[in-house]
Amino acid sequence: MAEQSALNQQLSDQAAHMDNFVRNEPLYDVEKDLQNILSQQARNIGQSTQANDAANKEIAQQSSPPGGPRQMTPDMLEAFKKASDAQVAALSQAHDQTDQQVVQKLDDISQMQELVKISTNSNHSTAINRTLLSKPRPTITPAT
Hints:
79% helix, rod-shaped
């Protein structure tokens, strides 16, 4: 149970980091979108660790009778395993969903960057063409 409690603390720390991943005042919409995705995942992690901590406390109370040593019954161990499995399932599903959303946002950024490159190259080409067109052209006179 101590290991599970330590794992829940690590997950909570990670959730806090995710909740504050983007700067306080994002410059770009994509930063806001990513922060929203990460904040939702942080909430999912927080709910999961709270539920798991509550299940652990209940099992700990049941297994520690007043004035006696800790006694874990097979039913208690099964309840502990079910709580752990439920946490893994919830976090795995949320991870997969978040992963897809973040990858989609990063793909969007990549496509936007390509458009900016094309636009920049086009603007550069247009500027070169204007410069060339503005220069005096040599006149060609027929030989006599």
